[in-house]
Amino acid sequence: METVEKKRILTGDRPTGRLHLGHYVGSLKNRVALQDQYECYIIIADLHSLTTKPAKEDIMKARENIHEMVLDYLATGIDPKKATIYLQSAVPAVYEMNLIFEMLISLNRLTGLPSLKDMARNAHMDAESIPFGLIGYPVLQTADILMPRAHLVPVGKDNEAHIELSRDIARRFNQYYGEVFPMPEVLLSEVPNLIGTDGKGKMSKSADNAIYLADDPKIVEKKVNGMFTDPKRISADVPGTVEGNPVFIYHDVFNDDKNEVQDLKNRYREGKVGDVEVKQKLTVALNKFLDPMRKRRSQYAEDKGLVEQIIYEGTLKMIEVSNHTIKEMRSAMGLFGAWNKISRIARERTGRV
């Protein structure tokens, strides 16, 4: 097996739109913190987008999304000198690895993953219209993880089962053909899922209940003002519930003035503060949190061609890494042995070197 100086991390996102606060607490924060300790690979998972958005117009839209998403990466503090950012579809080895791994997992194992049902529902698919590619989504994800032979995968709680499936595939490959892959481990964030602004589920692009990292202050204010709070509280003098209240969940995560947060909670429980004040202070806290990202994003956006260069160089590096992995896989499996023998005999017969 290849020897690496640092353990490797694989993480990334589908380019279906801009990134939001849920992405930040669920994964981006970890990536920034860990990029000095580990060899980080960040995938722009455009092939995964085809599982729910295969139309030509969606593919064309992804081009713009890719650019905006990488700007979000840079804005959060991801350093392309420390982390390799690459385009999934431009790495040929992922297609071959995906096909091989499909042979090592059962259909029942895949259909038992609840997250796939959630993805189908969010994409407005019924049971009859779910494509094979969506069922096989975790297998392609396994190819992404094992291609750089990642040791850690930062994910939210809802994707933990996918990593366990990747471990199953890696384990079976190693049992059949010899030790090629490490067992990837899950790295959960402190806040695995962030509730959406509508209070009905986790923050997501498809549910349109997100505050995006690139949102300007006025948009943030508008979204916070529209957030759900305690539905039983009809006026400011009625004691309210803090636990599970989306506005206070956000205060806990993003407001660095913990004394202010505690004061708001106390007064809210006592019926001595209205939702308006609580939301106003949350707006201030969120904009304070996002301002440094907005500034960095603007600076990077002004450097024309920078994003494309980062993706290009990162993809070339991943192609090199993936070629090493696929070569070891083929050797371990003996998969190309027949072709090697056939081509050798044919060349000898025709006198070719």
What's the quick description here?
This protein is mostly helical and 353 residues long.
Which segments are poorly predicted (pLDDT under 50) over 5 or more consecutive residues? none
Helical content stands at 55-70%
Total count of strands: 5
Radius of gyration: 23 Å
What's the assembly state of these chains? single chain
Number of helices: 15
Give a short account of the largest sheet.
3 strands, parallel
> How far from one another are the termini?
30 Å
Mean pLDDT: 92
What is the molecular shape? elongated
- Percent of residues in beta strands: 5-15%
Lateral strand order in the biggest sheet: 1-2-3
Helix and strand element order: EHEHHEHHHHHEHEHHHHHH
| Structural class by secondary-structure content | mainly alpha
